[in-house]
Design goal:
Structural class of chain A: alpha/beta
Distance between the termini of chain B: 32 Å
Number of helices of chain A: 11
Order of helices and strands of chain A: EEEHEHEHHHEHEHEEHEHEEHEH
Oligomer: heterodimer
Helix content of chain A: 25-40%
Shape of chain A: globular
Helix content of chain B: over 70%
Largest sheet of chain B: 2 strands, antiparallel
Largest sheet of chain A: 6 strands, mixed
Radius of gyration of chain A: 21 Å
Strand content of chain B: under 5%
Strand order of the largest sheet of chain B: 1-2
Number of helices of chain B: 13
CATH superfamily of the largest domain in chain A: P-loop containing nucleotide triphosphate hydrolases
Number of strands of chain B: 2
CATH class of the largest domain in chain A: Alpha Beta
Strand content of chain A: 25-35%
């Protein structure tokens, strides 16, 4: 299938500061992409550009539309939850459902009502009476009932407790995602999303430092718990990161043959979080 | 069209308090105060005197038939005047509504929710414009007509209690039924006069990061002050000077005062009004009011207002909410 999102030379400057520095990437349809980077790396800026919320330089095509000039058409097929999920304080649950049904051609009212029925939300409740988790539940009920081709989630679970976070991603995967849809997620809580991602993109200082499918990453990166007598040999293979766990050296290798590494110690797939930390070393230094 | 309907409904949900409850509350207070006043005068006032426009000379025995009809005619023609306070409140409510319309959702960042739906910035801003210039005035007009009728009935009951029966002549007076339509006929004129103010307020609302009121009122007033000061500085050395009166009247007043109902009265030639003998002749007032459209000022103001609304739409499209 063709790409849902294509960027070429995407650049965004705020005064002298370059937030996004000429990045290229492409997101095919039917993927769940994690856009992961430290604070201020340009994640949110990239997503804002893709959603037509800010102007930018370079080329960007979202579902075949230019978000700068064709935003009104684009928004019929795209939905997003912005970083701090905020709904207007005066909005009532039933009014919110009525409104989205009224303005969105791809909204499934029954679906939204089903989600709401599974929560503590009441139809007459106003947003200002809700807890933060409940607001996200309402927002999610609205968004998941929209049959959008592309869903962008920018830190959707920030500030929520673990129960809300788990159910959020579970619902997303079980009830929403299918091969017609594409989801782009940014988050700091890497551990929670890594099991649902199909693709990974690391962004640092406005540049993409890693873009690969999860399968490719599994092939490329290997973590080895090195046997004490093999540390010298392992070090010679140029690990990209090393740390000590219970007195044992754990090394991370990029593109080194797995059978060769197997002779040095216990081999396993690194977690995305470890990979992230290794790739971003020195960001805040 | 369907989207616009929902956008208007959204404005009403958000501002129900300002557009419905405020005028209803004031209307209720007016009915209680004035109705109470009538009831009091009925209970304790002497039966032989009634005051009409401050002249308490009419004795009940001696109300001639012609006088009775004249009173009834004035009551039937001018009863909507009783609702004037509601329209003053409308101007204030809409003024502050416009200031917050494109700012509040940016401040609490809920704009990102609205922008995640297929709503164009043009439709969003237009829905606020229609709310300010049509929905809010129509709601106030409806409440005003109801309140005025109620007050008229209370007044007539009070008069009847004193032996002056106005029901038959008032109810048969055509003006009783025409007045609400005269009121409605002012709406297009009101919209034209209010456009520069609404445009300016929406522009500031769309642009300012904070302190919307200060910017909206401060920019025109400080500019006026600066020009005044410049005049003072340069007048000894140069023959040019800024026409402060003109700028104040034609620009600043239109920018800030257009929402007040009857703003056009400053351009109305009042001489025709003095010829009205039987109280207020709504047709004459309406005609004279619409004659202000012969002056270019109101049209230039409306064009400037529309341009500022386009500006507000563009600003809303590209404003980065960080």
């Amino acid at each position: 299938m063709s790409a849902v999102l294509t960027a070429r030379g995407l650049t965004k400057r705020y005064g002298k500061r370059t937030a996004v520095d000429g990045i290229d990437f492409s997101v095919p349809a039917g993927r769940i992409v994690g856009l992961i980077g430290p604070n201020g790396s340009g994640k949110t800026t990239t997503l804002k550009a893709a959603l037509g919320l800010i102007d930018f330089e370079g080329e960007l095509s979202v579902l075949g539309f230019d978000p700068r000039t064709q935003r009104d058409d684009l928004m019929k097929d795209v939905c997003f939850i912005a970083d701090v999920a905020i709904l207007p304080r005066w909005l009532r649950v039933k009014d919110a459902i009525d409104f989205v049904e009224g303005v969105h051609p791809r909204f499934d009212r029954k679906k939204a009502e089903r989600y709401v029925a599974n929560t503590k939300l009441k139809p007459g409740m106003k947003v200002k009476e809700m807890s933060k988790g409940m607001i996200v539940q309402l927002h999610l009920a609205l968004v998941m009932a929209i049959d959008a081709k592309l869903l962008v989630l920018d830190e959707p679970t920030l500030g929520l407790d673990i129960i809300y976070r788990k159910t959020f991603y579970q619902n997303l995967l079980e009830d929403y995602f299918d091969e017609q849809k594409t989801i782009v997620i940014t988050t700091h809580q890497v551990e929670e999303v890594e099991h649902i991602l199909t693709d990974l993109m690391f962004i640092r200082d406005g540049r993409i430092v890693l873009a690969a499918t999860m399968d490719e990453i599994g092939e490329r990166y290997t973590e080895v718990m090195v046997a004490p007598d093999k540390v010298g040999a392992a070090g010679a293979l140029a690990p990209i990161d090393q740390r000590t766990v219970f007195g044992k050296q754990v090394m991370l290798f990029d593109g080194v043959c797995r059978t060769q590494l197997g002779q040095l110690g216990e081999v396993r797939n690194p977690s995305v979080a470890d990979l992230f930390v290794a790739t971003m070393k020195g960001t805040y230094a | 069209m369907k989207t616009m309907k929902w956008l208007l409904r959204r404005e009403i949900w958000e501002h129900k308090g300002a557009f419905f409850w405020t005028p209803l509350l004031i209307a209720a207070a007016m009915v209680i105060l004035m109705g109470g006043g009538f009831a009091y005068s009925m209970a304790f006032g002497g039966a032989e005197h009634i005051r009409i426009q401050g002249n308490d000379v009419v004795s009940i025995e001696g109300v001639p038939q012609a006088m009775r009809y004249k009173i009834a005619h004035i009551a039937a023609s001018a009863y909507l005047g009783a609702a004037a306070p509601l329209f003053m409140v409308l101007a204030v409510v809409v003024f502050f509504y416009c200031l917050s319309a494109l700012h509040d959702d940016r401040r609490d960042r809920s704009i990102l929710f609205w922008k995640s739906l297929p709503l164009s910035d043009r439709d969003t801003v237009l829905s606020k414009l229609v709310t300010a210039l049509c929905v809010a005035p129509l709601v106030t007009m409806a409440i005003s007509v109801a309140t005025s009728l109620l007050l008229l009935v209370i007044g007539m009951l009070a008069a009847a209690g004193k032996g002056l029966n106005l029901f038959a002549p008032v109810l048969t007076d055509l003006n009783l039924y025409l007045s609400p339509f005269y009121l409605l006929a002012f709406l297009p004129l009101y919209i034209l006069w209010a456009l520069p103010t609404v445009g300016w307020l929406l522009l500031v609302s769309s642009w300012a990061k904070s302190k919307v009121f200060l910017w909206a009122v401060g920019i025109p007033l400080v500019t006026l002050l600066l020009l005044f000061w410049l005049n003072f500085i340069i007048s000894p050395i140069a023959p040019v000077h800024f026409d402060i009166d003109f700028i104040g009247k034609e620009i600043v007043t239109r920018m800030l005062g257009g929402l007040f109902p009857g703003a056009w009265m400053s351009e109305v030639d009042g001489s025709r009004f003095s010829q009205m003998k039987d109280g207020l002749d709504a047709g004459v007032v309406l005609g004279e009011s619409y004659r202000t459209l012969a002056n270019p000022g109101v049209w230039l103001g409306a064009i400037a207002g529309s341009a500022m609304i386009v500006g507000a739409i563009r600003l809303r499209r590209w404003r980065d909410e960080g």
